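Example record

One chain of 122 residues, shown exactly as stored in the release files.
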Amino acid sequence: QVQLVESGGGLVQAGGSLKLSCAASGTFLSINAMGWYRQAPGKQRELVANITSGGTANYSDSVKGRFTISRDNAKNTVYLQMNNLKPEDTAVYYCHAERVIFTPTRWYLEVWGQGTLVTVSS
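Predicted structure tokens for this chain:
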């Protein structure tokens, strides 16, 4: 089994910064990609950013230049540094792990965290 535990959400004023962390725990060999999605009230869940085990990062256009994703493979942890936050960034942010490998013949396609709320006030 594997669990994703997020931390770092909260309330911040527009223009401020927050850093989210997500640690994967359990017994597994590797995780292909880790990342963050978000879901605002009344909207669909959307990709914010993800990063492969090799360090290749991908960002949504709405956060490029403001958010930075990083990953510590030794700690099985992914981070999201969010700068210059805007009210439209308000959402529940979910950590996501893609293709968690347990053995060469057993893996999970994806695992989700429980979500952490980020609120940006204007």
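Notes: The chain has a mean pLDDT of 96.
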